[in-house]
Design brief:
homotetramer, about 220 residues, alpha/beta, seven-stranded mixed sheet, two-stranded antiparallel ribbon, 6 helices, 9 strands, hydrolase (chains A, B, C, D), Pyrrolidone-carboxylate peptidase (chains A, B, C, D)
């Protein structure tokens, strides 16, 4: 059976939960457009996260891979446009490592663009009444690390498997501890991710829609 | 039968919906703690809003009144502490009126404190995993106008009927048109309001909890 | 000689400086419109702040009093509209006291409106190219405490002495420790306060300008 | 004489001024570390901006090039880490063009990292008490366009000339029209840019300092 791999992260930065796993785990074994969704939790650790991801890709041979993570403070679902070849950790990862200005892949290209139809995904989620937008940066922490590592691996495979990254706001229960921070309900997030998978499977050519930022 | 009156507003400021009515209308005729909830939509207009409110209070003789409104841009459920005796409209109301620095009740006191157990309500909603906080200002528009008018009327009646005001974030579908704005799902909001009513009915003495602001 | 009293606060909340004293101290003994400006630093402590303020008022017999404080996180100069009769401390004051939901003046009115021409002050500061706005809440900490205590005292005196409160953003050097927080240069702030004093001295009747908030 | 080229932009997006030119123009012909600073205003237009930049680079043969632009809404000086190979205009440029998802250089690399010592610049500006940070995205508008085009040209030259981009907050007078937006005084900004040039000229190897983002 054809597979879709969707990954999430374990909690980090003092949080008890990670919204990505709360949402992604609900999609495990779901059938979408004839594909079986497989959900996998990654460690929030440089290196280990990619090791786990690559092993899962090897085992499953998925035709689409979407990695999902937490972007505490953002108000909407953000579909990442690009991953950059740098690890620059503001806080230590879950292994206690805090790389600063080190390349993810020494000698690798400076960046990879997502190969998901990011504009179509944003448009589809918004059509469903859920706030979403394109993000121009996935940061420089483990999320960006996984997105870059994923796209690097896919670029080497030279097949048509597509991949990318989606960031989620805090869940409401997390926002309790972050006064003034926006949040989004787990059910809403799950619907958005389900749509993202479906749209990615169905869309050959991305839409030409405004989604840029002046800075 | 004993009644609770919960009011909401019609849309204003170019919005197609108002989150307060979307949530409050779902509570209409609900039974809570032996009280029947009556939901009523108010016009978003200085004067008219209070006329409608007073007529409903007269007809129902409710033992608790909670007015609810939209606070676009806030990220959580905010329970208002105080209403002030001023109309100062940043935008015209739905009748096209835009009073500036006019008293709501000429000769009335400068302000009224909510008579709801605001700390207990905030605490209860947060216990359910929904972000909530005390707000130190209900603004100077129709929401504050209704809160002040409500508390002024209750102060004159000299009975034990309690009242106050709760502000809601945008709904997700509204946030589509306000990039970066936080939102909260209608179902989450409805649960929070249901708790607010229940807690207000059950709590004699408010809790002594931190809920202030340094500015 | 006729006097203007302008007060500021000592640092609080872990800060090394308070923008209010950095700016206000530069105005000490300045002559404005024939009035001598006297600058006074208040302790950031419930009770003590008012004791110091009242003593200074008694000694100087000023004809205008403007209290100034820090509102970390706000981006512009905010002229406060109203002070409310409550102490609700989110953090302990500099004496270690943390009153919760206690009246400032037991039996006092719920609130006092500023007797400064707040719209004219905002307008004048903005004319000079400096961001300013009316604020609908001075919080529930020592700033609001001083503003309420000041206006209560002035209301009892029944003379024409006017008073109010102005909040300032962080200084740039403070914002270093608050990532993403706005700040304003000390020189800009000093100019704004100088204008506030001048405008308050010259303006009998406040301007009728929009300055409200929808929430 | 050895030269430093520092560029700014003309106003765009309905603004009357651009903070970059207000600050950069004050540095014109300044001598710093034995280098003469040349300030140049670029059109805020895709293509034309690079044509003007390249002509100036050709004429001056500068040994350092820093492009500067406006990032309305940001609170501090942001030193950009990376430019990406995409034009995606949220609003039309000053020629009325609005490219969507088009490469800046067809076939060019996905991104270029700044060759400025970005951590050292941020650190030096902060040491002077001015808020500054590393930014992980220069957006997808004319600022990113110029940064990418600049770094692409420098990469082709294969000499040691360094280049990068710095974004500025609104000036206070601009923030008047953007309620709640942070701003920074022109004099503060000019000092920060002067330091950026000096540090870039003096620093061979960038500092190893935390400057990343979790998202």
């Amino acid at each position: 059976m054809k597979k879709v791999l969707i990954t999430a992260f374990e909690p980090f930065g003092g949080e008890q939960i990670n919204p990505s796993w709360e949402a992604v785990s609900q999609l495990h074994e779901r059938m979408l457009c004839g594909f079986q969704v497989v959900a996998k939790e990654l460690p929030c650790a440089f290196g280990d996260a990619l090791t786990t991801l690559y092993a899962e890709m090897e085992a499953l041979q998925p035709e689409l891979i979407i990695a999902v993570g937490q972007a505490g403070g953002r108000a909407d679902i953000t579909v990442e446009r690009i991953a950059i070849n740098i690890n620059d950790a503001r806080i230590p990862d879950n292994n206690g490592n805090q790389p600063i200005d080190e390349p993810i892949i020494p000698g690798g290209p400076a960046a990879y663009f997502s190969t998901l139809p990011i504009k179509a995904i944003v448009d589809g989620i918004r059509e469903a009444g859920i706030p979403a937008s394109v993000s121009q940066t996935a940061g420089t922490y483990v999320c960006n690390h996984v997105m870059y590592g994923l796209l690097h691996r896919l670029a080497q495979q030279d097949n048509k498997v597509r991949g990318g990254f989606i960031h989620l706001p805090y869940l409401p229960e997390q926002a309790l501890n972050h006064p003034g921070a926006p949040s989004m309900a787990a059910h809403t997030v799950m619907l958005a991710l389900e749509m993202a998978i479906t749209i990615a499977l169905r869309t050959e050519q991305d839409l030409r829609l405004v989604g840029g930022a002046t800075h």
